[in-house]
Amino acid sequence: MAAPEKLSDIVTSFLDVVHDRLVGDRRGAVADYIPQLADADPELFGIALCGLNGRVYESGDTHVEFTIQSASKPFVYSLALDDQGLDAVHARVGAEPSGEAFNSVKLEAGTGRPPNPMVNAGAIVTTSLVEGSSADDRFARILARLSAFAGRDLSVDEAVFASEQESGDRNRALAYLMRGAGSLTAPVAETLETYFRQCSVLVTASDIAVMGATLANGGVNPLTGERVTSAETCQHVMTIMATCGMYDYAGEWLLRAGLPAKSGVAGGLVASSPGEFGLGLYSPRLDASGASVRGVVAAQRLATRFGLHVLHRPLTLSAAEVTAANDELAAGLGAEQDAVATQLLQENADDLAVWRLRGYIDFDGAERLLLDLDSWLEARPADRESPAVIVLDLTEVTQLQSVAVWMLAALATWCRARGMRVIASDPQGRSLGVAGLSQSAGFDDAVRDAAAMTGANPDD
Amino acid sequence: MAAPEKLSDIVTSFLDVVHDRLVGDRRGAVADYIPQLADADPELFGIALCGLNGRVYESGDTHVEFTIQSASKPFVYSLALDDQGLDAVHARVGAEPSGEAFNSVKLEAGTGRPPNPMVNAGAIVTTSLVEGSSADDRFARILARLSAFAGRDLSVDEAVFASEQESGDRNRALAYLMRGAGSLTAPVAETLETYFRQCSVLVTASDIAVMGATLANGGVNPLTGERVTSAETCQHVMTIMATCGMYDYAGEWLLRAGLPAKSGVAGGLVASSPGEFGLGLYSPRLDASGASVRGVVAAQRLATRFGLHVLHRPLTLSAAEVTAANDELAAGLGAEQDAVATQLLQENADDLAVWRLRGYIDFDGAERLLLDLDSWLEARPADRESPAVIVLDLTEVTQLQSVAVWMLAALATWCRARGMRVIASDPQGRSLGVAGLSQSAGFDDAVRDAAAMTGANPDD
Amino acid sequence: MAAPEKLSDIVTSFLDVVHDRLVGDRRGAVADYIPQLADADPELFGIALCGLNGRVYESGDTHVEFTIQSASKPFVYSLALDDQGLDAVHARVGAEPSGEAFNSVKLEAGTGRPPNPMVNAGAIVTTSLVEGSSADDRFARILARLSAFAGRDLSVDEAVFASEQESGDRNRALAYLMRGAGSLTAPVAETLETYFRQCSVLVTASDIAVMGATLANGGVNPLTGERVTSAETCQHVMTIMATCGMYDYAGEWLLRAGLPAKSGVAGGLVASSPGEFGLGLYSPRLDASGASVRGVVAAQRLATRFGLHVLHRPLTLSAAEVTAANDELAAGLGAEQDAVATQLLQENADDLAVWRLRGYIDFDGAERLLLDLDSWLEARPADRESPAVIVLDLTEVTQLQSVAVWMLAALATWCRARGMRVIASDPQGRSLGVAGLSQSAGFDDAVRDAAAMTGANPDD
Amino acid sequence: MAAPEKLSDIVTSFLDVVHDRLVGDRRGAVADYIPQLADADPELFGIALCGLNGRVYESGDTHVEFTIQSASKPFVYSLALDDQGLDAVHARVGAEPSGEAFNSVKLEAGTGRPPNPMVNAGAIVTTSLVEGSSADDRFARILARLSAFAGRDLSVDEAVFASEQESGDRNRALAYLMRGAGSLTAPVAETLETYFRQCSVLVTASDIAVMGATLANGGVNPLTGERVTSAETCQHVMTIMATCGMYDYAGEWLLRAGLPAKSGVAGGLVASSPGEFGLGLYSPRLDASGASVRGVVAAQRLATRFGLHVLHRPLTLSAAEVTAANDELAAGLGAEQDAVATQLLQENADDLAVWRLRGYIDFDGAERLLLDLDSWLEARPADRESPAVIVLDLTEVTQLQSVAVWMLAALATWCRARGMRVIASDPQGRSLGVAGLSQSAGFDDAVRDAAAMTGANPDD
C-alpha cells in the first residue's frame, strides 16, 4: 500500500486498505467445471472504483483479464430492454427473486417464464431477445454493447467459449425446457452459442468498474462520454440487480449492503452506487452460491462503511439548524477561523484557496473537490515556501453522505501531513482538522480509517 | 375535486386527480374472513400524503378509521430491531422474499426461520421479540410505537380483535410450527394475542401517511418532531418493505413502482419515499394477494409519474452545461427575462419576489418553495392592484426530480391563472411559463397533468 | 354386443357390457402436441383381456393400431433390469411416486436421480441403460423385447417418430438436465432418438393385453409360451407400475383399483392382474393427467367389480366350515343333488360331466373350467337329444375370488338358457343354478351382471 | 437360540436366526423429544409373528411394553373408514405418498387435505372422524378398536401422554393449519388430546403382531376369532400402509420388501402379509426417517427371504407339467417312494402318517401342516420304538410359495434329526429329504437357513 501522493489518491488508499485486509481471506474454491476456470490463480485480487467523472481508482490485480460470465447478464438485459421494451421483455421473463440457485429450473406456472433475468434461464431468454439479422449479428451487437459499457473494445476467450459449449448440459436443459414452455422461441443451439460466447468475453476489474459506473451514471459512460443506454433502462437494470443479482440471498444482500450487484463464476463482481460510482471486483475463489468470496465481502464493506445503501437517508440539516449555525459562526470559533482565512487571503493569494460546498455532498461531490484541489496544488508555483492554506466553507451544505464525511476528513489529514493548513468554516462542529468530528459512530469509523490511511494507528 | 386555493393545494389537487381516476375501479373483493371486515363499505377510498415538514395532503376518505392489520408489521419490526438489534432479530427471521403467500408455512430448513418479517409467520416472531415485563406491557410498548409513528394516540378495535382471535387458526398453526422449529420461543397464546391486538389497531389513511413519512424522514415524525427510531432502523425497515412488503410479487413491484410499501387486509397501504414523503392509501377491495386494488394502482401511479423509484437517478446537468447555460443567459432570452425581473424588482418591491433554487430539487425542496410562496402571498398587502411577479432563478440547480419539474409547472399554471407573472431564469430551456418545456416524455406528462389540474384540457 | 356363443364368450360378453356402458363417455380431449395424435378418431374404444392360457377376449376397436407411447416404459424398464440388475438401475433412477406430472423436472437432491422409471425423465434413463453395441442395436433389442411381450413383430410409426423428435423440447431438456446432474451418462441426442422411437412403436389393444398378461404370468408370454423375462423382474415392474404408473394420483389409483397399470398419451392403457390376466385398453380422449378417460374408468370398474385388487383377500373357508359342510352334504340337499348326479352319470355318460374344483379358484381357474367345458361340449355328439348335465363339485374349494363367483354364475345362466342342467355340489349354499346365491352384495352384483349378459333384465 | 422342540418351533427358530443376526446392529438413536422415550433401553429387540390360526411365534423382547405411537394410525384409520365410509374419509384426507417427512405441513392445494392417513396431519384428521358422543367416548371407541385388533385390553401410559401433550407444538400447528384449511372441523385441543392418547397406548411386539395378523386375516382376529372390521376395510388399510406407511421412502420399501407396514417412534413396527400372517417388531433405535432400524431390516429380510412381496407370483406348475409328473411318479423314483410308503402304511399304522397337500401352499398352509404333525406326534404312543414315518404327497400341489418351500425343508431336517423318516411323493424333484432341492437360488437359501436352524453349518 503506497502512501497517497495526490489528494485523489485518498480513494485509492482506501481501496488499498480494503484489499490488504481481505487478501488473507482464502475461503472458497475456484470454479472447476471447465479447465480454464480451474486453472485460475486463486490468489488474484483486484478492486477498482470508477467515479462518474471517469476517474478509475485501482488496487491489486485490476488489469488481469478474466471471463465476464454472469456479470454480463445485466448489460445484455439492458440491450434486450432497449430492443424490445420493458413489457415485451417481461412477458417472457419474470422479475422475482427466485429463492433458488443460479441454475434453477423453476419456471412460472402458466407462463413458463423463468423467474428473472439474472438466473441462467432468464439470461438465456434475454440473450434471445436481442435483435439481429443473424446469430453473428446478434452477438456483434452484444459485444458492442458490453464494449460500450466498458469503454474499450472487448474480445472473446475462444478456449473458454469452447469449454462452456461442451459442458453446458444444464443450460441446454434450461433452454429446451423454456422452448417447450414457450418462453424461449429462438432456436436453442444458436441462442446458447450466443449466450456462452457472451459469458466468455474477457474483462478486467477496471473494465467492470467502468461498466458499473455507466449504470450509476444513468447510461452515459463516464470514461468516454458515450450515451450507452437511457437512464430509464439503467433504473430497470439496477432494480433487477438489487433484487435478483445475488441469487438466493438477494434479500439479505439488500438488507446488509444495499447496492445493486452481479457476480460471475470466474470471480468477477460488478456493483453500482446510483449517482455515485461503479465498483469492479475480481477474486476467483467462490462461495457456495458461486459468488467471489472476497468480492462479496469487499462490496459489503464498502457499502456499509460508506453509507451507500440505496435506501440510506443522508444526514440532513434543517433550515433552522443552518440559521443558528450561521449565527454561531459569526460569534464564535467559526468566525475566528473565517477571520484567519480572510487575512490569509489578503496577504497571499497564491497560498490560499477557498471552496464553497453547497447542498448535498456525496461521493461524487467530494471526489470533484479532491480533483479540483489536486489541480490547484499542481498549478501552484513550485517555489512557494509558505504552506498552502485551504478553506472549506461548509455553511451551505445541507446533506452529507457518510462517504463524503470520510473523504473530507482524509483530505484534512493528508494536507496537514504535508504542512498545509485546512480551515473549515462549519458552524455545526462538522469541521475538519479541528476538534468536534465525533457526532456519530459512522463518522468515527471514517476518521479512524482516514488516519490509518495516512499511516497513523490503523486499529483493525 | 376542488380547485386549489393555495399553492400548496397543488399537491392535493394531484391526489384528487388520482382519486377521481381510480374511484371507478371496483375490481377485487372486501376481505370476508371476519364479519367486521366483510361489513366495510367497499366504496371508501382515501389518499393521504405527508411531506417531511409534516404537512398532510388529503383526498377522499382519509379520516375513516380501519384496522391497520399487516401494515403494522414494518413498525413493530422497527421496535424489535431497536430492542434486540439487527443480528438478533435476523437470527430468528429471514430477510428473503418468500415467493409465497402472506400466510405461507415455509420455514427455512435447518434454522426454522420464517422467510421475512412481512409474512405472518415472520411478523409473529418480531412481535414476540418486542421487550416487555408482561404481555400487557409488551402490547403497551407496541401501541406506543405505532402511536409515535402516527403522531397521535391510537386505540384497538376490540370487536375486530375478538374476531381475529377466533378465526386465527392458521396463524396459530404458524406459531406452533415455529415453536416446534425453535424460531419462536415465546408462549404461543400470549404472542398471538399481542399479534392480533396489534393488527386491530385503528388508523386512518392520514395516520399511515404520517407513519410512512416518519420512516421516510429517518425516524423523526414530521408532524410532532419526535424521534421515534433511528435512521439506521428506518433504512432496514424500508429495505424489507421494498423487497418483501408486497408479498409474492415484490420483485415486480420494485421494478414498476420502486417504493417501499406494505398493505393490510382491511384495505390500508402505506408507502415511503425516502427523504421525500409518506403515502397512506385506503380502499377495502382486495386483489388476489390480499392488497388493496386501488391502493396498489394509486401507489404505482404516483411512483412512476413522479419518478420516485428508489433507484431513479435524477436529471443531472454537467458543470460544462451550466457554464454554457450561463453564457446563453447573458446573451439571450434568459438575459432579457432577467432584465424584466430586475426592472420589476426596482419598481415595486412589494409585488416582486425572487427565489434562487440550488443543487438537487426533489419533492421536499419543491414543496418548501410552494409553502414559502404561500406565506409570501398571504403576507402581501391585500390591496395591491398590480399583479405579483415571481422570479425563480434556476441557474444553480444541478438536479431536478421529475416530481419537482411537475410541481414547478403546476406552480406556474396556478399563478398565471390568477394573473400573476412567473419569470424563470433558466438558461437551459427548463423555463416555466414560457415555451420550451418539452424536453422529455415525462416532462410532457407532468405538464399535461398540471394543466388538467387547473381545469385546462384534461386529456385522460 | 353379441350373445355369447360359447361358454368362454362369457368373458367377452362382460367386456362388451363395460364397453357399451362407457362408449358414451366423451370427456377429455385427444392429445394434440403432434398432428398424428391430434388426428386420431376420438370415438375409438377397444378393450382386450388376455388370460394366462393365452386366450384373448376382445370388445370394440381392439385391432386398431396406435403408438404405445409411455405404455412402453414398464417393458423397457424390464430390459434395463435384466441388463443391469435392480441395484445398478436404481442407482440412476428412484422408485418413489413423484407427486408430479409425467414430465416433471424434479430430480433427487444429491443424486440427480429422476423420481421413478415411469415419468419421462426416468424412462429416458432406463432407455439409456439398455445395452447395445450401437444406437441401432440398442433400439433393435428394445423392439425385440416389446415384440416378445406382445407375441408378434412390432414396427415403428415413422411419421410419429419424426414428429416426436421435432416437438420433444421438454424431453430434451430433461435429458440435458440429467446429464448435467450425472444420472444420464449416455449421449443425449442418441438416447432421445431411441426413446422417441420406442414411444412410436405401433400396438393394438390386444397387443398390450398380451404384454400385460406376460407380466401377470411371471414373464412367460401366454400366447407364444416364450419366457420373455424372469418372474422377479415382473414383480419389480409391476411394483413400479402399481406405485408410479398412474402419475400423480398413484396412491388413489392403488386404493381404488389396486392394479399395476400404465397409460400412454395416444390413449393406450395396459394393466396386469398378477397370476390372472393382462388388460389392454384403447381410447384416445385423455384426462388432465394424460391418461385415457375411458381406459381409466374401464380398468377401475373391472378391478373393483371383480375383486382384483392386489391386496384383496379372497373369501376363505375354515377347515371347520368345510367339515361341517361335508356333513351337511351327506344329510341334506347337497346329497340329494349328488345322488341325481350319480344317477345321471350312470344312465348316460355322454350327457354328463363332473368337474371337481379344489383350493383357491380365481379368474385363471374359472377360465380353465370354461375352456374345458367348451371342449367337452364341442366333442359331444351333435345328435344327442337329451340335454347335457354338468356337475360342479365345489366341496373342496377353500377360496373363491369374486370374479370366479361371477364366472360360475354366468356359466350356470348360459347353460340353463340352452336347456342344460347344472348341478352344484356345494354344501355351503354357494350353489349355482339353485336358490341361495345371495350371500353377499358382491355376489348379487355378479349375478345381476351375468343375467344382464345373457339378455335378462340388465338393471344399470 | 434354543433348539426347536416341536415342529412348529421351526418358525420360532427362524425368527431367532433373524434376531441373532440383527441384535448387533446398533445404528440409529432412540427418540429423545420426550424423556419417557429417551429413557428406553436401546438394546431391546423383539420379533413376533402371528399366523392366521392365532399361533404367535416370538423371539427376544416380545413382552416388553412400549407406546404404539404412529403404528396406531392404520387401526384408527380402519375405525374412521367403518364410521364414515371410504369416500367421506378421503374427502378430508388424501391417499398419496407425500414424499415428505411424517410431520410434513404440505396440504393439497384447493382442498386443504393432508396427503394421507399415515402422516401426522392425516392421522389427526382420521382420529377426528371417529364417532363418539364426547371426547371420552371417542377415545373409548378407539381404545376398544385397538384392543380388539390386539386381542387383549390395552391401556394408556399416562406419563407419555402428558409429555406428548406438552411437546406437541408441531402437531398442534398441523391441526390449526388444517382447521384453517377446512380439512379438520373438530376442535383442535380435544382432537389432539385424543390423538396423543391414542399414540400413548401400551403394546408389545406380540400385540402388534396379532394386530397385523388381524388385517392379514381380513378383519377377523385370529387369536380371539372376533370380527374386528370388514375384509374390505382391511384391504383399504393395507393399501395405504403399502403406499404411505413407510413415509418418504414408501416406493423403495414396496419395491424391496413389498409388505404393508407401519412404524412408530417408540420403536414398534407392524407389518401384514395378506392371507399369511402379521409381524410385530420392536427395537427403539430409529433411522433418520423415524423408523426402527432393526425393525426395518428384519421386516425386509423376512419379506425378501420368504417371497412375501404382495406382487410376488408363486411358482406355478402347468396342468401339462402335473400330468407328466404323475406319469413319472408311476414309472420311477417317485413310484418307488410311494411303494415304500404303502408298505410302511400296511405294516404299522401307528408309525405312519400321510398328508396330501393340494393347490397353492403358502405360509398359512405350511404352518397348518406343522401344527397337524405336532398334534399327531403328541398323540402317538410314547413307547413306540420304531421311528415315525411321514409321507407328504405333493402330487397335487400346483403352487408353492418360497416360504412354504423353506418350511417343508425345515420340517424334513427337523424330523431326520430325530430319527424319523420323511418321504415325499413329488414327481418334479421338489422332494424333501432326498436330493434335488436346488431348483432356485431362493430355495437354496431356504435350505441353508433350515440347516442353520437345526444346528448344522449356519454360513452367514
Structure report:
- Four copies of one chain form a homotetramer.
- The first copy, chain A, has 460 residues and is an alpha+beta fold.
- Chain A has two domains: 9-305, DD-peptidase/beta-lactamase superfamily (Beta-lactamase); 315-453, STAS domain (Transcription Regulator spoIIAA), CATH 3.30.750.
- The first copy, chain A, has helices spanning 9-22, 35-38, 73-84, 86-90, 120-129, 135-150, 158-167, 169-181, 188-199, 205-216, 231-244, 250-256, 293-305, 319-331, 333-347, 363-379, 402-417, 441-453, and strands at residues 29-30, 46-51, 56-60, 66-67, 202-203, 261-263, 268-273, 277-282, 285-286, 315-316, 352-361, 389-400, 421-425.
- Chain A has a five-stranded antiparallel sheet with strand order 3-2-8-7-6. In chain A, strands 10, 11, 12 and 13 form a four-stranded mixed sheet that branches.
- In chain A, β11 (352-361), α16 (363-379) and β12 form a beta-alpha-beta unit.
- In chain A, α5 packs across α9 and α14 (319-331) crosses α15.
- The longest helix of chain A is centred in the C-terminal third of the chain and has 17 residues, at 363-379.
- Chain A is elongated, with a radius of gyration of 24 Å.
- Chain A starts with 8 loop residues before the first helix and ends in a 7-residue tail after the last helix.
- At the A-C interface, α8 of A face α8 of C.
- Chains A, B, C, D: This is Glutaminase.
- Chains A, B, C, D: It catalyses: L-glutamine + H2O = L-glutamate + NH4(+).
- Chains A, B, C, D: Belongs to the glutaminase family.
- Chains A, B, C, D: Its EC number is 3.5.1.2.
- Chains A, B, C, D: Substrate binds at residues 70, 120, 164, 171, 195, 247, 265.
